[in-house]
């Protein structure tokens, strides 16, 4: 039977290939969105003026990725090259990393010039041209100009020194710490190349739940080897620093940031790192959060801790990214309020080389969260956005969830201070901060396709593009990614972009509609667990978040509840104060409402919830059908993997729906609305599911 199916499929494909553009040959996804790997042959002429390792890479990329059919000679050159400066082009506004690509006359020849004020700018220009062509543009008339709006565009790897990756769903860590620094896997170069192609210019190598060992001499040498590989691609290396390292590897009795011996230890440590890595970026710190040590252990503030580290790296031009992800079980306050309560009073107290890194929402990378109230509340402090690219709460490796719309929803949110948006806080425009940054928790591992699935690559891609320019449109990013990844055939691109743009909302629908959040199972966070109530820390239990009882559901964060709404600027707080003016997509985040609360559609909240769960499942089923229709147009390997993943997703979307409804019914005693299918199993069955070996779970 299987052989028959294969045969039928093979002959169907042969016919299709004869009739249509043949799908690309076997593709294991390794090449990501950069799909040429052979130097172009034919009439294309590329010249390079000047010689640096990065300029050479720019030239090599063009040779490798531009189609031979490109019929205009291409010149890569620094803007300071006499042949370019003679053209008096408007290059000042390109800054340090921007590029300009345009037809020009050089030495009496018509060429396409790729230039920038630095060789990194030129490299980004080369990639912009490659992107332009791979998305259907022409070389001859290419006119492209862009400069990044955000200075630090950084991946955060939650990679452990033993090769495991916290919340990683795509294999082991790329970094082979054991064999470094002697063996430099060629894959490190390919990693850097992929990042450079989307503008990522920094990488934090190790988990924020850090081990002090990564700051010892052998590990500094290993990090230095990676930094050497990444440098020509414009990528700096950063390290997560464990705050108690002076005790653990320094032999000190304390890590109190106000103790001069501690400050001196960090200064010497920074000097040592910079001797090995002269362009080391700086430190990322998770302090006094989920058991990590920090300045609060000594009664000092987060600013004291950050500033002490900032002073150590400052002479070398380094920075500190200090995370605001803090909450404590000893604090009875609503978890969603705790970071603001702790950090807002510190505005203006941080050194000028510190960024405070804030997650997009106040809880933890849920499928939907309102923007974090710290954005707009700390005008004197550069706030760095932290997105999670790895899909800890959105179906991990297998569910198709394109995160572009999640990212842009937050970036476009109005903070309530005039026209200010979260994006304008992050890119510095709002308060004229020069030091700006965006971090993405990486979804990269040593799986052959890097991210555990083709569509997960789009989330890495979208992060890079939005870090470069937070005002980009998520559908446009999806389109350019899809064109580079699958080719420009509109019969493929239309459905692929459609699937991507519906996918995140589908996950919201089948995991937690109307602003419900944190309903997942314990530890690995895989699958549903809205019933979980027995964990030691109250705010680790889903029941803490949904507060469902016989009468209603949702977390009252208005004045009658935790008053978290008051952390937003008055214009936004006012909207969130009433269920009538709160967007329904965030309703139960802010309000505890009766099950028979009337939605704008006229149906009850309960009926609306059931409809959303059903809509989520139906959307995944529809995505599967769309993908089925692409069978003959996408290479077999990537098509089959995605098809299998979509089948998993549909099954698990039903599981989420059925388990959730079964539990809600056990609480509210309500029947399902007419026509809704009953859950497949009883609640006991859902509660009994256990996944002790699910990936990504910290141990
Ligand atoms: C690195 C969540 C994740 C943790 C992660 C933490 C953080 O709680 O589940 O694995 O730890 O966020 O962002 O620090």
Automatic annotation (TrEMBL):
Residues 136-450 form the Glycosyl hydrolase family 67 catalytic domain. GO terms for biological process: xylan catabolic process. It is an enzyme of class 3 (hydrolase). InterPro entries: A-glucoronidase_C_sf, GH, Glyco_hydro_67_aGlcAse, Glyco_hydro_67_aGlcAse_N, Glyco_hydro_67_C, Glyco_hydro_67_cat, Hex-like_dom2. It catalyses: Hydrolysis of (1->2)-alpha-D-(4-O-methyl)glucuronosyl links in the main chain of hardwood xylans. GO terms for molecular function: alpha-glucuronidase activity; xylan alpha-1,2-glucuronosidase activity. Keywords: Carbohydrate metabolism, Glycosidase, Hydrolase, Polysaccharide degradation, Xylan degradation. Belongs to the glycosyl hydrolase 67 family. This is Xylan alpha-1,2-glucuronidase. It comes from Sphingomonas desiccabilis.
């Amino acid at each position: 039977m299987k052989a028959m199916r294969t045969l039928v499929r093979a002959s169907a494909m042969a016919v299709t290939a004869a009739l249509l553009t043949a799908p690309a040959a076997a593709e294991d996804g390794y090449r990501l969105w950069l799909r040429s790997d052979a130097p172009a042959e034919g009439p294309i002429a590329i010249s390079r003026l000047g010689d640096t390792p990065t300029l050479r890479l720019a030239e090599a990329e063009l040779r490798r990725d531009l189609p031979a059919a490109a019929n205009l000679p291409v010149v890569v050159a620094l803007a300071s090259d006499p042949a370019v400066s003679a053209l008096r082009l408007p290059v000042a506004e390109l800054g340090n990393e921007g590029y300009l690509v345009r037809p020009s006359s050089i030495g009496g020849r018509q060429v396409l010039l790729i230039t920038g004020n630095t060789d990194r700018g030129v490299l980004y220009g080369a990639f912009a041209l490659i992107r332009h062509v791979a998305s259907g543009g022409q070389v001859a008339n290419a006119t492209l100009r862009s400069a990044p709006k955000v200075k630090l565009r950084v991946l955060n790897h939650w990679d452990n020194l033993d090769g495991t990756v916290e919340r990683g769903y795509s294999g082991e860590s790329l970094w082979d710490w054991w064999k470094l620094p002697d063996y430099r896997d060629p894959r490190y170069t390919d990693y850097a190349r992929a990042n450079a192609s989307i503008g990522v210019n920094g990488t934090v190598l190790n988990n924020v739940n850090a081990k002090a060992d990564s700051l010892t001499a052998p590990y500094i040498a290993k990090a230095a080897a990676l930094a050497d590989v990444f440098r020509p691609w414009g990528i700096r290396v950063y390290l997560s620093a464990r705050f108690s390292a002076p005790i653990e590897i320094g032999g000190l009795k304390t890590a109190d940031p106000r103790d001069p011996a501690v400050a001196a230890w960090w200064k010497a440590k920074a000097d040592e790192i910079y001797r090995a890595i002269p362009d080391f970026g700086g430190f990322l710190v998770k302090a006094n959060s989920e058991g990590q040590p920090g300045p609060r252990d000594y009664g000092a503030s987060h600013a004291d801790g950050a500033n002490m580290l900032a002073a150590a790296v400052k002479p070398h031009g380094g920075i500190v990214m200090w995370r605001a992800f803090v909450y404590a079980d000893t604090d009875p306050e609503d978890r969603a309020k705790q970071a603001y309560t702790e950090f807002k009073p510190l505005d203006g107290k941080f050194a000028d080389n510190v960024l405070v890194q804030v997650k997009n929402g106040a809880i933890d990378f849920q499928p939907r969260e309102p923007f974090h109230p710290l954005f707009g509340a700390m005008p004197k402090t550069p706030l760095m956005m932290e997105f999670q690219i790895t899909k800890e709460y959105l179906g991990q490796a297998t569910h198709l969830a394109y995160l572009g719309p999640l990212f842009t929803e937050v970036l476009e949110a109005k903070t309530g201070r005039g026209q200010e948006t979260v994006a304008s806080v992050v890119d510095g425009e709002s308060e004229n901060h020069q030091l700006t940054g965006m971090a993405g928790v990486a979804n990269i591992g040593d799986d052959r396709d890097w991210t555990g699935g083709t569509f997960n690559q789009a989330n890495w891609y979208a992060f890079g593009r939005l870090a470069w320019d937070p005002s980009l449109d998520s559908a446009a990013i999806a389109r350019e990614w899809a064109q580079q990844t699958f080719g420009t055939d509109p019969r493929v691109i239309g459905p692929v972009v459609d699937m991507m743009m519906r996918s995140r909302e589908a996950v919201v629908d089948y995991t937690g509609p109307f602003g419900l959040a944190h309903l997942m199972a314990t530890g690995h966070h895989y699958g549903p667990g809205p019933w979980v109530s027995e964990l030691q820390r109250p705010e680790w239990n889903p029941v803490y978040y949904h507060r469902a009882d016989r009468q209603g559901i949702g977390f009252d964060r208005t004045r009658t509840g935790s008053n978290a709404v008051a952390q937003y600027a008055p214009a936004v707080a006012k909207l969130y104060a009433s269920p009538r003016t709160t967007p329904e997509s965030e309703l139960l985040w802010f309000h505890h409402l009766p099950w028979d609360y009337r939605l704008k559609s006229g149906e009850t909240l309960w009926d609306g919830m059931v409809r959303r769960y059903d809509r989520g499942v139906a959307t995944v089923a529809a995505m599967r059908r769309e993908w089925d229709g692409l069978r003959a147009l996408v290479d077999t390997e990537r098509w089959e993997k995605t098809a299998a993943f979509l089948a998993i997703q549909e099954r698990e979307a039903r599981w989420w729906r059925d388990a959730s409804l079964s539990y809600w019914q056990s609480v509210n005693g309500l029947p399902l609305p007419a026509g809704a299918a009953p859950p497949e199993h009883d609640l006991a069955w859902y509660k009994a599911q256990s996944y002790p070996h699910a990936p990504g779970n910290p141990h």
